[in-house]
Design brief:
Number of helices: 5
Low-confidence stretches: none
Number of strands: 2
Order of helices and strands: HHEEHHH
Largest sheet: 2 strands, antiparallel
Length: 158
């Protein structure tokens, strides 16, 4: 947190700045997470308010993503509308990065198929739900011995 942005623009007050943000209602779990983060952390992890060339927050405000590898570039403003909006944007980016990590680690990747008939989620009851997929045809197809397709050689005839 080398250079955190100013929380509120110098030329505007709380309400003049917050009028650009919508009222956000969080569910119970997200509300508890929001309260915990505002008490324990200096600001949102992955987002910040856009700054002008002199370092103040721009009006009208705009929420931007932090550069890769940077965290906590912005302190909480103290205004509930602004902080909740930054929290929601922060959570969206957090879940997006989590999804990218699960794909990269190949955790819980659904099997891709070209047909739209059957869905590729739910409990798999053997190979039957995916019987028409290309992978199932190859993996569950008849097994042949490795040399059955080659012509007989002199050693085989002896």
């Amino acid at each position: 947190m080398a250079s955190a942005a100013l929380a509120i623009p110098v030329e505007g007050g709380d309400e003049l700045f917050a009028k650009y943000f919508a009222e956000i209602t969080l569910d119970v779990v997200e509300e508890e997470t929001f309260r915990k983060r505002t008490l324990e952390e200096p600001g949102p992890r992955y987002v910040h308010l856009r700054r002008s060339a002199i370092g103040t927050v721009t009006v009208p405000p705009h929420i931007e993503e932090n550069k890769p590898g940077q965290m906590n570039n912005q302190v909480w403003t103290g205004h509930p509308k602004v902080d909740r909006t930054m929290f929601i944007m922060d959570r969206r980016l957090e879940h997006q990065q989590r999804d990218v990590k699960t794909v990269a680690c190949q955790k819980n990747i659904p099997m891709l198929r070209g047909t739209l008939g059957r869905k590729n989620f739910g409990t798999k009851m053997g190979a039957e739900p995916f019987a028409e997929s290309h992978r199932a045809k190859r993996m569950n197809g008849p097994k042949r011995p490795p040399l059955a397709t080659l012509p007989a050689t002199y050693m085989d005839k002896m």
